[in-house]
Design a protein that fits this description.
Layout lengths: L4 E5 L1 H18 L5 E7 L3 H8 L6 E11 L8 E6 L9 E9 L3 H11 L5 E9 L12 E5 L5 E2 L15 E4 L4
Parallel strand pairs: 2-3, 2-5, 5-6, 6-7
Antiparallel strand pairs: 1-9, 3-4, 8-9
Helix pairs in contact: 1-2
The structure holds guanosine-5'-monophosphate (5GP).
């Protein structure tokens, strides 16, 4: 499958890191009112694996986001295409994001969710590309730091393709 994509982080390493993040979150949120906010579409695979590694009563909400940009570049202008279905006032919200690139999307989502008066809002990101930071955002739980390359797989797309790859990879040029 997808021989034109080279592996950057294989499925076993992702699974191991997701287990570790789940254990940390389970420890930190014990006795609290946890709501995972899955940022669609890219975080759907990460959220479903992470949720199953959290051993606590919790809810999952989905936030549909469309980020306007040119090609593979984010502009930070974010349109909400699907909003939370229930209020999160008084809850401990954990935003689950596939990748923090410039930081503009997460900065916007933090501002938005804080207006909903949760008890707390934190960020869990699978990937971070520090080389491209335009705005510093707190990443409270982080899977992997990666170099400045456009990655696909494990929920991440390139023109809607590759989301179903079980690993994080790089599209070979010419494909
Ligand atoms: P930011 O606002 O932090 O620049 O961008 C965040 C969003 O841009 C991510 O949620 C993701 O949708 C997209 N993005 C940033 N870098 C990559 C990448 O390397 N691969 C893919 N597929 N999407 C990316």
């Amino acid at each position: 499958m997808a021989t034109n994509v080279s592996t950057m982080i294989d499925a076993d390493h992702i699974a191991q890191r997701v287990r570790e993040l789940g254990a940390e979150i389970t420890r930190d949120y014990a006795g609290r009112s946890l709501v995972l906010v899955c940022v669609l579409k890219g975080s759907f695979v990460f959220t479903s694996d992470l949720a199953r590694q959290i051993d606590l009563p919790m809810r999952v909400e989905f936030l549909g986001v469309r980020s306007y940009g040119e090609g593979t570049k984010s502009s930070g202008v974010v349109q909400i295409t699907h909003d939370l279905t229930k209020p999160v006032e008084g809850d401990d919200v954990l935003i689950v994001e596939d990748i923090v690139d410039t930081g503009l999307t997460i900065a916007h989502l933090l501002d938005l969710l804080r207006t909903r008066k949760p008890a707390s809002v934190k960020v869990c990101a699978l990937l971070h590309k520090p080389a491209r930071t335009r705005i510093q955002v707190p990443i409270d739980y982080l899977g992997f730091t990666i170099e400045d390359k456009f990655v696909v797989g494990y929920g991440l797309d390139w023109a809607e393709r590759y989301r179903n790859l079980p690993f994080i990879g790089l599209v070979e040029s010419g494909s």
